[in-house]
Amino acid sequence: MRHGETTIPDPHIAMRTIRVLFQTPNYNYQTNINGTRKEIADYFRGAPLNVANYPAEVMRVAKAIEFVGQDVKVEL
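Now predict its structure.
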């Protein structure tokens, strides 16, 4: 589901748990973030993210995010 194609209420929640998904599943990770689903999707959409451990840099762009406990997946 792409954001904008849903009529699910999107309130601002102080802290949400999300899974960030990549083409290569071993880069997937779970984190906490503040904001609405739209704000969070906009933050990750097209953003290069470093998925390596310091000091290495491996930049990847996420393909989707899942909102844990809400059964919502947003394709980026």
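Residues 25 and 48 are 16 Å apart (CA to CA).
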